[in-house]
Design brief:
By secondary structure, this protein is of the alpha/beta class. 33% of the residues lie in helices and 23% in strands. The strands form two sheets. It has a seven-stranded mixed β-sheet, covered by helices on one side. A two-stranded antiparallel ribbon has the order 8-9. The two termini are 32 Å apart. It binds glycinamide ribonucleotide (GAR). InterPro entries: Formyl_transf_N (IPR002376), Formyl_transf_N_sf (IPR036477), GART (IPR004607), GART_AS (IPR001555).
Length: 210
């Protein structure tokens, strides 16, 4: 089974959805380590409680992004990691690092890409008045939130929504599609092929619109 590193910066609810899914004996990947760039990330305690090894690589200890990414890459090598999942990991990665992990690193983003790249996606979706919002799992490339899309889920935007209520509806779907997408990538059914995702066979996608 491929060994997966989950990279976090905070709460770690998506990390937990991956850990819980991977606990099933038939899951085609193993969560080998959780790495946080923030020593105070709440997700660290949750990973430890689930008996997953954790590491802290504090970005403040490095002069630049290249230094941080080199330490991250060294840790991934030590842990014999095959695949990387960014799960609320709030650091930009250098082009060299994304190139090295090309096709082996995925991210979850709380919007229907290519709409609403970057931060504050729920506030911006409400401000734009979109009627459908959602989340995306994609391969990570050098450009932030741009890599080829593996899976998406959509949710309605309701009249009474606040960023918090909309975000909670989206988060519920993040927890569905991230494990599903990791499963596809881990068993090789979804692969990066140039600037597209190649899928071997038609895959049924979880709740397209809920
Ligand atoms: C999630 O909503 C994730 O999609 C988002 O941060 C949240 C992390 O929550 N990621 C980004 O915005 C990436 N730029 P979690 O720590 O509970 O998984």
């Amino acid at each position: 089974k491929p060994r997966v590193a989950v990279l976090i910066s905070g709460r770690g609810s998506n990390m937990m959805s991956l850990i819980e899914a991977a606990a099933a004996p038939d899951f085609p990947a193993e969560i080998a380590v959780v790495i946080s760039n923030r020593p105070d990330a709440h997700g660290l305690a949750r990973a430890q409680a689930a008996n997953i090894p954790t590491r802290i690589i504090d970005h403040k200890a490095f002069a630049d992004r290249a230094g941080f990414d080199a330490a991250l890459d060294a840790a991934l090598a030590e842990e014999q990691v095959d695949l990387v999942c960014l799960a609320g990991f709030m650091r930009l990665l250098t082009a060299g690092f994304t190139q090295k992990w090309s096709g082996r690193m995925i991210n979850i983003h709380p919007a229907l890409l290519p709409s609403f790249k970057g931060l504050h996606t729920h506030e911006r979706a409400l401000a734009e008045g979109v009627k459908i919002h959602g989340c995306t799992v994609h391969f990570v490339t050098a450009e932030m939130d741009v890599g080829p899309i593996i899976m998406q889920a959509a949710v309605p935007v309701l009249e009474a929504d606040t960023p918090d209520t909309l975000g909670a509806r989206v988060l519920e779907q993040e927890h569905v599609i991230y494990p599903a997408a990791l499963r596809l990538v881990s068993d090789g059914r979804a692969r990066l092929a140039g600037n597209r995702v190649a899928v071997d066979e038609f895959e049924t996608i979880p709740p397209a619109l809920v």
